[in-house]
Amino acid sequence: MANVQNYTCPSCGGPLAFDAASGKLLCSYCNSTFDPDQIASEHSAGFDGNTEWKTESTSNDWGEDAHAIREYNCPSCGATIICDSQTAATSCPYCDNPTIVETQFQGSLRPDYIIPFKLKKEEAVKALKEFYRKKPLLPKKFAEENHLEEAKGIYVPFWFFDGTAVGSATFNASSSHTEQRGDETVRITKSYLCERSGEISFNGVPVDASRQMDDKLMDSIEPYDYASLTEFSTGFLPGYYADIHDVSAEECFPRANTRCAATFLSALRGTVKGYESVSLASKNISLQKGTVRYGLLPVYILNTKCNDALYTFAVNGQTGKTVGNLPSSKGKAAARFFRNFFIALAIAALAAFGLMSLSESPDVALPLGAFALFVALMTGVIGLVRDKSKMKTVLEAREADRYTNGSLILHSQSDSFKGQSVSVIAQNRQNGSGMQNRQGMNHQNFGGPHNGPYRH
C-alpha cells in the first residue's frame, strides 16, 4: 500500500494543503503559509548514518522497596500503574474506568531518575480553571460539568536521549535584483550552492514510554526543568500513581531521531544567510555517543466527556503548563463571527462614506461598498480562526532546540556561485504617444560554477 504523507501545521497542528496560487503550503485552520521544502525537510529529518543509541542496563531490582509497592491493572485500557501501599487506586488515571485490579508487583524496570511533583493538586485544579477561562468557544455545559477535583497525579515514564548529532547538509540558495538595460527592465537571479558541516549535542530529549499516554499531549506540556531531576526513590510516590513503561527505548528511537536531526538541520540552515530563498538539497547526519536513560516526570491528568467524546487534559506537575484539545460551541462561534463582522462592517462603512464624500464621482460608491463588505467578512473569518486555534493546544514536537548543550559547532562552510538567469520583466518602447510598457520573459543565462566561497 502506498504511504501517504499528511503534513500538519507547525503553528496549530491543522492539516496543510498546497495552495496553487501562492505556491505555498496553506493551513486550512489558521491560514499560516509555509515553504513546501521547509515542511518536507522537517518531516523527513532523521539520521542518515550511524544511529546507535546505547540503552543502559537499567535494573529491575527494587530491593526492600518492592514490599511497599502495589501494582494495579486496568482491564479497560490495559494500563499498569504502581503506587505505595498507602495510596489506593480507585480508578484508572488514563480512562477513568472505576474497576481496577490489584495484582502482584512484578518488579519492572526501576527508574533511574525522577522529577518530584512541585504543584499541589489544588494548584493543578486552579491551572485547569484558568485554562478553560481563556477559551471563548468553550460550551458552557462542558465547563460546568467538569469535575476538576478528579484530576489525578501520575508519574509518567520517559526515556531520555543524550547524544551528539554530526553531519553535513547542502542547500540551494538564490538572490535576485532588477536593473535597467537599455529599454528593458530585467531581473537577474543568481544561484549558489551552500555547504555546511558541524555538530550539536543534546541532553535529555524526552520521549514518553507509556502506550496509554498520548505522545502529542506529553510533547505539549514540555519543558521540564532538569535542575530538579534527582535519583529515583519510592519516597516520592506517596499520594501519587506511577505508570510502568510499556514502550521500549528501541520503539522510541524514531521520535528521538526525528527531533534531534530536525534541530541539527535547522541549525545548519540558520548559518545560510543573505539569500532570498534557501532550500535543502542533501544531508548526511549521524549520531555519536548516544545514550538512553529512564525516569519519571510528574503530570496531572483529567479525563472528561462531552457528547460521548472523551477529552484528556494534562498539567505539568512541575511548571503548571496546561494543555488539551477542547470542544467548540457552534452557537458561540457564530455569535463571535457576526459580532466581529458587524463591528468591522460599521468601521469600514464609515471609512467608505468618508472617501465617497471626498470623491466627485458617484461611481466609487459600489466598489467602496464591496470593499467594506470584504473587509468585514475577512475580519470575521480571521477572528473565528484565531478563536478556534485557542481550542487546540496539543501539538507534536518536531524539534529538540531546548535540549541542546550549547550552540552549533560549525566545522566548515562554503558558498559557491553556480550561475545566473536573466529574465525581462518589462520592456519600454518610445513612440509618438509616449512610453509603452510590455511585460515579457527573456532567455536564461547560466554560468559555470566558480571556485572558492562566495562572499556577500
Write the layout of secondary structure elements.
Blueprint: E1 16-19, E2 24-27, E3 33-34, H1 36-44, E4 53-55, E5 69-73, E6 80-84, E7 101-103, E8 113-114, H2 121-133, H3 140-145, E9 152-181, E10 184-208, H4 215-220, E11 230-231, E12 241-243, H5 249-269, E13 277-306, E14 309-316, E15 322-323, H6 330-358, H7 365-389, E16 409-431, E17 434-438
Helix pairs in contact: 6-7
Features:
single chain; 456 residues; alpha+beta; 14-stranded mixed sheet; 3-stranded antiparallel sheet; 7 helices; 17 strands; 34% strand; disordered N terminus; disordered C terminus
Quick structural summary:
With 456 residues, the chain is α+β, with helices and mostly antiparallel strands. The chain is built from 7 helices and 17 strands.
Notes on the structure:
The structure is a single chain. With 456 residues, the chain is of the alpha+beta class. The chain has seven helices and 17 strands. The chain has helices at residues 36-44, 121-133, 140-145, 215-220, 249-269, 330-358, 365-389, and strands at residues 16-19, 24-27, 33-34, 53-55, 69-73, 80-84, 101-103, 113-114, 152-181, 184-208, 230-231, 241-243, 277-306, 309-316, 322-323, 409-431, 434-438. Strands 4, 5, 6, 7, 8, 9, 10, 11, 12, 13, 14, 15, 16 and 17 form a 14-stranded mixed sheet that branches. The protein has a three-stranded antiparallel sheet with strand order 1-2-3. Strand 13 (277-306) and strand 14 form a beta hairpin. Helix 6 runs antiparallel to helix 7 (365-389). It is flat and about 95 Å long. Residues 1-5 and 431-456 have low confidence and may be disordered.
